[in-house]
Known about the structure:
The chain has helices at 11-16, 22-30, 36-43, 59-71, 84-99, 121-129, 145-153, 192-206, 212-218, 220-229, 236-250, 255-263, 274-290, 304-310, 314-347, 368-379, 405-411, 435-445, 471-478, and strands at 2-5, 76-79, 105-108, 134-138, 157-161, 174-176, 356-360, 383-388, 392-398, 418-421, 425-431, 457-460, 462-463, 492-505, 511-518, 521-527, 542-554, 557-569. By secondary structure, the protein is α/β, with parallel strands linked by helices. The protein has three domains: 2-33 and 458-569, CATH 2.40.50.460; 49-324, inorganic pyrophosphatase (n-terminal core); 349-451, Diaminopimelate Epimerase, Chain A, domain 1, CATH 3.10.310.30. The protein has a five-stranded parallel beta sheet, sandwiched between helices. It has a five-stranded mixed beta sheet with strand order 7-8-9-11-10. A hairpin with a 3-residue loop joins strand 10 (418-421) and strand 11. Helix 5 (84-99) runs antiparallel to helix 10. The longest helix is centred in the middle third of the chain and has 34 residues, at 314-347. It is globular and about 80 Å long. 39% of the residues are buried. The mean pLDDT is 93.
Amino acid sequence: MQWKIREPMPVEFAKSFPEFNRPLLQLFWNRNLRTKESIYKFLNPVLHNLYHPREMLNMEMAVQRINEAIKNNKKIAIYGDYDTDGVCSTTILARTFKILNYHNFDVYIPNRFKGGYGLTKEKIEKMHQRKTQLVITLDCGITDAEEVALAKKLGMEIIIFDHHLIGAHPPETLIVDPWQKDDQYPFKDLVASGISYKLAMFLLETNHHPLKPIFEKQFLDLVAIATIADVAPLIDENRIFVSEGLKQLVKTQNIGLRKLLEIAGLNLKTKLDPYHVGFIIAPRLNAVGRIEHQVDNNFEETDYSFELLMTENENEAEFLAQKVNNLNLERQNKVQEIYDHIKKELSQQSQPDKIICLGNPHWSKGVVGIVAGKLKDEFGRPVFIYSEGKEISTGSARSVNGFNLVELIERHRDLFIEAGGHRLAAGFSLKNENLERFKEMLQKESAQIRDEDLIPKLIIDTTLDPDEITPQFLEIFYRLEPFGRENPEPVFLMSDVIVSDVRIVGNGGNHIKFSAQKKNRYFNVISFNNAEQLKFLTSGTKADIVFSLTTDEWGGQQFLEFQLLGIKEK
Length: 570
C-alpha cells in the first residue's frame, strides 16, 4: 500500500481564513471550496438553498401537462425502474398523486428477468389496452426512442424524467433531464429521485396544496436513500438532500420504510449515516430487482419494494418488509457463492490478469455487478463478470481510476448489443458468438494499464497534530458530513506516535485496539479485521499512523476515536 499525501494548499489561501485552523483549511482546499461563500454554503446544507424546479428545462411545461391530465381525469401510467433509485422516484410521484387525491393511474416497475430495463413494447401494448393516455417515465426512457415512437403512434403522450446521459438520437417527446444540451440547471448530478422530488414539489406548489411544507420534508428520506444508493456525488443539492434526508429517515413517517429499518436491526434513536443506507437499507430495496422469484399476482406490474414504500397498512408493511429482507438474504448467498467460486479460480493463478474477466451460465445476471464490485475492491483492477445465457451474455464491469469504462465501450461499440454506464461502473450485453473477441479485446486493452496503477494507494488529506485537534476543529469537522463520493471521509497522518495498551477485541478476536500518544495526549485507535497483521505492535512501538476520525459511544457518552487505515513502524 502506497501512502500519498495531497499537495498542500497555497499560503495565500491559508491567510484568507484566519477563523479556521490549518487542517480544516486543507480539507476545504482538497474539496475545491475556495471562497467564503462556498465554504459556508457547504457547512450549512439547508433546504432553502435548493434550486427551484422551474430552472430545469421543460419542467414547467411537464407540470402543466400533468396538471391538465389530472384535471381531465386522464389515465396516467408511472413507469419506473427496478433499482433503489427507480423504486424511490416512482414512490415519490405515486404518493404525490394520492396527496392530490388523484387515483386514476397505474404503476409499472419492469422486471430485470422478464423484459429488462426501460420501456418495452410489451408493456406499451399493455398500457394501451389499459386505455392509458399519459405515460410518465422515471429513471428510464432516455434511450428508448423506438418504444416512445410506438407509444405515440398508439395515441399516448409520453414525458420522460431521467438523469442519465443523453445519446445522439433521444426520443422525440417532452424530456426533463438536466443533461440536455440547452438545460441551464445549475446542478447536473441529481439522481432520478431528486428529479421526481422536484416534480412532486412543483405539482404541490401549482395545486396550492396547504401541506406542501410538510411533504417537502417527509419525502427527503426517499431522496437520500436513492442518492446514496446511486453513489451520486454528495455535493451541492445532493449534499442538502442527504444531510436533511438522513435526519428525516430517523423519524420517517413511511410505515414500510420504518418496518424495513426495524427488521434490518437499525436503532431509530441513533444517528443514521450513508453507511447504514448504502450497506443496510439500499441493498434490501435493491434485492427485489436482483433476484428472480415468483411474483404475487397483486404485484405483477410493480414489485415488493415499491409496495412496501407505498403501503399504509401495518400488517402489509410487516409482511413486505420480511419478504424484502428474505430476498436480500438470498441475494447475499448468491453473491457469496459466485465470489467464492471466482476466488478459488483466481487462487490457482500466480497473479490475476490486469483485467479480470469471467462468466458462467449458472451465475445470476441480477448479482454479477455486486460480485464485480467486491472483486475490484479486493484485487484493485478492472473486473468484468457476466452471466452466460443461451444466445446472449449479460454482465457488469467495475473499474479503477485510470481505466475509463465509457471510453472502452465507445471504442468497441460494435461488440455489444447494449452497453453503457459511468467511468467506473457499466453494464453490457453481447452475443455469445462474440465472447472470445470480447476477451481478446480486454487482453489488448489491459496493455494500457501500468503496473503502478494497480498498486493500492492510500490518499492522505493532510497531517494532523494533537495541538490541532481542538473543540472548534471537531465542531467544524463534523459539519463536513455526510461523507461520500466527491466528499470522501478525510484521511489524516499523525507521525511519531508511541503505541501503548495494545489489546485484541471483538468476539472472533479479529480487531485490535491501542492507545496512540504524542505531546502528552492519548488517542484511542481501533483497527478492524486486522489483528493478525498487527501482531507486531507492542507497548513502546514508535510509528506513523494514517486514520479517519470517528466517535465511540460508551455509557451514554461519545469519545473521539481514530480508525486505523495504515501504520508504519519507525
